[in-house]
Specification:
Radius of gyration: 25 Å
Number of helices: 23
Low-confidence stretches: none
Helix content: 40-55%
Mean pLDDT: 92
Strand content: 15-25%
Strand order of the largest sheet: 3-2-4-5-7-6
Length: about 575
């Protein structure tokens, strides 16, 4: 049989997993991986995507997993490359994204066991990455590459997904071995790839509880989105006539425009959460931004029942006592529930509470609309960017949020129309993810519009990735809401001191982000009014290039954006 390098063996393992892209900055420690990608591109169809920073590569992978539901792969070199990568992996961990990270070490005789002797770019990779991943391990032998890659994917995709980490010395990547002496298996041969139905008895009990409840509230988290459970959520809600709420991470699980959908930052959502006598929690731990599932956002545990669906058994009853636990994939479990509920009751009209919730939300929406009605005002409000985007982009577009207070505007004004169409670092709040997220989403779906509305502070973290987008012909559109400061920190300072204060350490020097973008080969636009956003979007799309729209926004309005009170309440645990 032919001999192949460890790099080629690794690549063939990734091909068996269906990987299309390896995100990595080229480096000598894994030169044989790069060589194999170039030589075998026509056979394996794997492409190398080279970013300008390893953390951005991890963010791009994170986004790719969210819009596709599939794992993604990022690589980094020994020492500094792995250090840079770690921030992106920590973010993927918080968001539950199955990103497989592969880092190299120097050759085996320069491993971390000899770090005390002064080896260059040698560090304790396994120890450093271990808290940030679900599993990690080191390849000690050429023939063990397939075993370790299988374990990395097995762990990344099981239960609640998350990142994993494989460490490979450069000499093993360069080493040659007999290709016939190792086995490469497709995913269905070694890990669970099909969903497993829920316990029929528990499904029946849950269905009876749903049918007999006075008011059901279906509350969805990222597990519902990850499972692609939109259709099942909608079927169940429409059959029961009950309200659907969602975490910010699960925006679009059913369209925001649906009569049974209630916005995550509107009081209608809190009323639905708190007044329902039964919560069907789909793929959510009911964490901090859900006030741990406790009053006043949710009802008293003794009075409010909970049916909880989650792929991870350890999430059941984590923050709120659970009456019926349903462990498994949300889409599969919900399809069973829909069928069981249909055998117990005919389709019901919308619950009488829906009218009250709709009235609350309509009034809330009217206030939001009035706030942005004057599209000629200068400077504009960030919400006016979103209203223009809602009108311009179709429901197939993927929307990326980034920033602090900018994301509060994003959340309030963006209309989510379908699942897996909104990407945001909700659980980690990681600034700078916007542009890399957009790149990852565009790699996954090159024929869909991908746009990001970000603050200028957040944009500055990974602005260098504009060149990555240009080089890889990824025409994403980035709208930068420019207030010249870390706006959310101004909000925090105002809350902390309770008075107007000189902002300390928050303001930026003036930057024309559109001109920076042009210098990098992108299309650039500069707008100061809401009415100027749509024409700028039209020109950006027509350019066929990655585009940056510098949108000047009102810095005073940005200190206290819509929903700021709710954000502060969730963070402090004080709803009063």
């Amino acid at each position: 049989m032919s001999e192949i390098t460890g790099g080629e063996l690794l690549l063939r393992c990734l091909h068996a997993e269906g990987i299309q892209y390896v995100n990595a900055i080229t480096d000598g420690t894994y030169m044989m991986v790069i060589e194999a990608i170039e030589r075998l591109e026509d056979e394996l169809g794997i492409k190398l995507i080279v970013p300008r920073h390893e953390a951005a590569a991890a963010h791009a992978c994170d986004a790719y997993t969210r819009v596709t539901g599939k794992p993604a792969v990022v690589m980094a070199c020994a020492g500094p490359g792995a250090a840079n990568l770690l921030a992106g992996i920590m973010c993927a961990q918080a968001e539950g994204s199955p990103v497989v990270a592969i880092t190299t070490t120097r050759r085996s005789d320069m491993s971390d066991s000899y770090i005390h002797q002064g080896g260059m770019q040698v560090s304790h990779h396994l120890d450093i990455f271990r808290p940030a991943v679900k599993w990690n391990g080191k390849v000690d032998h050429w023939a063990r590459i397939p075993d370790m890659i299988r374990q990395a994917f097995r762990m990344a995709t099981s239960g609640r997904p998350g990142p994993t980490h494989v460490l490979i010395p450069e000499d093993i990547i360069s080493q040659k071995g007999d290709a016939g002496s190792v086995d490469i298996w497709p995913p269905e041969k070694y890990r669970v790839t099909a969903t497993t139905p829920g316990d029929p008895a528990l499904i029946r009990q849950a269905a009876e509880m749903l049918v007999n409840a006075e008011l059901v509230n279906i509350h969805c988290g990222n597990g519902a989105e990850r499972a692609g459970a939109s259709e099942e959520v909608l079927q169940l809600a429409e059959h029961l006539g009950c309200p659907v709420t969602a975490t910010i991470r699960a925006r679009g699980i059913i369209p925001d425009t649906h009569a049974l959908s209630f916005h995550p930052t509107c009081m209608s959502r809190i009323v639905a959460n708190s007044q329902a006598d039964l919560i069907l929690a789909v793929g959510t731990r009911l964490g901090e931004l859900n006030m741990w599932g406790k009053p006043p956002m949710f009802g008293e545990p003794g009075k409010q029942k909970l049916i909880q669906i989650d792929t991870e058994p350890t999430h059941i009853g984590l923050n709120k006592p659970t009456d019926i636990p349903l462990v498994g994939d949300a889409k599969c479990i919900l399809s069973q529930l829909v069928e069981a509920v249909k055998t117990l009751t005919d389709k019901r009209p919308p619950h009488e509470k829906i009218a009250e919730l709709r009235m609350i939300q309509d009034e809330w929406q009217k206030e939001l609309d009035n706030l942005v009605a004057d599209t000629k005002q200068t400077p504009m409000l960030t919400g006016q960017i979103l209203t223009a985007c809602n009108e311009f982009f179709d429901e197939d577009a993927i929307f990326v949020m980034d920033g602090g207070n900018t994301t509060l505007w994003d959340i309030h004004y963006h209309i989510a129309r379908r699942q897996r169409s909104v990407i945001y670092s909700m659980n980690y709040g990681h600034l700078g993810t916007g542009l890399p997220y957009a790149i990852g989403a565009k790699l996954a779906f090159p024929d869909r519009h991908v746009y990001c509305v970000t603050g200028d502070s957040a944009f500055g973290f990974n602005i260098q990735e504009l060149e990555t987008a240009v080089r890889n012909d990824l025409p994403v559109i980035i709208i930068v809401a420019v207030d010249g400061a870390y706006g959310m920190e101004k909000s925090a300072q105002l809350r902390q001191f309770g008075r107007e204060a000189d902002w300390f350490g928050h303001d930026h020097a003036p930057v024309r982000y559109d001109q920076v973008a042009v210098a990098m080969g992108c299309h650039g636009e500069y707008v100061e009014t809401g009415e100027g956003v749509r024409p700028a979007l039209e020109r950006a799309v027509q350019s066929g290039k990655p585009a940056v729209i510098h949108a000047v926004v009102d810095p005073e309005a940005n200190v206290d954006p819509p929903g700021n009170w709710l954000w502060a309440a969730a963070r402090t645990g004080n709803m009063e």
